[in-house]
Amino acid sequence: MILKGGCNVLEPTMKELATSHRLTDVTDSFPGAELSVITEKKLIAVNFTAARAREFIDILGALPQPGKSTDCQGHHLLWTEAGQVFCFATSAQLGEATLQRDLGDTAYVTDLSDGWIAVSLTGENAQTLIDHVAMPDLSVGAFEQGAVTSTLFAHLRVIIWRNDSDAFTLLSTASSAQSFLHALRGELATAANYLERSHV
């Protein structure tokens, strides 16, 4: 805990706040789709300048194009914005210290594993359901496998990654995890009900 402005008001540190909102073993089933929180993950932000991009590629062997992702040494690099990628892995073996050691002074890395949550939506109807929820065009033609986008959902920043033909990973900050998951569940349930009624 930290003191606020020298007063006797205590505020949680970032780590304490993220931990207090951590979600585990959350799974919801919808017709032809399943929503689950990815509990075993590593998420590391890597920031670099355009001038060092070539060195970045030489060291890691890859750098995704804007709006894309790429596999790299057993993990995934997701383009999030100019000069930044997220390194995502479902293995605890990937670490901030390891990446910083490999990259040296070509980039600055920050471990976001406790500060962000990852949610998986999979199944044959995942595409149909997310089309009714997300504002960007996530159709196969516009958002192919490996594509990444950042958008607002329920007033929260969400990064959406199509990690397979019928699978999406959604990333959002852990401090708003409960609100994010509540809104997402509600929207998916509404979409599922609408689809069921339309096929009656």
Description:
The chain is an alpha+beta fold and 200 residues long. Helices cover 26% and strands 34% of the residues. It contains five helices and 13 strands. Strands 3-4-10-13-12-11 form a six-stranded antiparallel sheet. A hairpin with a 6-residue loop joins strand 1 (2-3) and strand 2. The chain is elongated and about 55 Å long.
Provide keyphrases for this structure.
about 200 residues, alpha+beta, six-stranded antiparallel sheet, five-stranded antiparallel sheet, 5 helices, 13 strands, about 35% strand, disordered N terminus
- Could you state the order of secondary-structure elements as H and E? EEHEEEHEEEHEEHEEEH
Residues in β-strands, percent: 25-35%
Question: How many whole angstroms does the radius of gyration measure?
Answer: 18 Å
- Strands of the widest sheet, in order across it, are 3-4-10-13-12-11
Number of strands: 13
Helix content: 25-40%
Query: Distance between the terminal alpha carbons, to the nearest Å?
Result: 55 Å
Which of globular, elongated, flat, extended, rod-shaped describes the shape?
Answer: elongated
- What would you call the structural class? alpha+beta
